Amino acid sequence: MLTDTERGRLLAIAREAIVAHIRGTALDDVLLANPDNTRGGAFVTLHRGRELRGCIGHVERDDLLGRVVAQCAVAASSSDPRFPPVTAGEVDELSIEISVLCPLEPIAGPGDIEIGPHGLLVEKGSSRWLLHPPVATEWGWDREQFLAQTCRKAGLSSTAWKSGATLWRFEAEVFGEPR
Question: Are 168 and 113 in contact (CB under 8 A)?
Answer without folding.
Answer: no
